[in-house]
Amino acid sequence: MALITAVLLGLSGRPAARSNSAAAAPRPSPTQANSPGAHVPIRRQGSLVLTAGHVADLDSTTSTWAEQTEPGSPRADVWFGAKDRALHGVGNNDIAVLPKNSPGGFWACALDQDYGASLHAADIRAGRILCGLTAANRVAQLRVTSVHDDAAGVPDRVTLDITVWVPTHRT
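-> structure tokens emitted (171 positions)
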């Protein structure tokens, strides 16, 4: 410690200032965007029709959300599995399934702790809300608006209303 102090004194020509970072840091007001309940700007909103065996990139600005056949791009965020017909996060881009009575929104998704889930085929129905963390670490909400089943009664096409917010998720 004495050596570090001596080096700091030698570099600046004066004693190093001490600060209490907790006391020095300004306290955020409840109206700031990083406070639960505050308005958060939206980066992009739109619909996506995702068919079984496809992935989509929620950070994409293309009209199709860069939908591709699985496994798709490493930047893909959501995957509708061809074999299990479940909705999953791709790679490290996890999803969470909100409780059935949740209104959704940025704060419901940003504060959710159950990431790493999948929405299984039997549970895919209109009104279900998923939250995603994108490859760019943004918070996204995916609300199922319609489901098409194949002849066996298993989902083969899902329509999602998607909202992706501007700020990155803080982990």
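The first strand starts at residue 42 and ends at 51.
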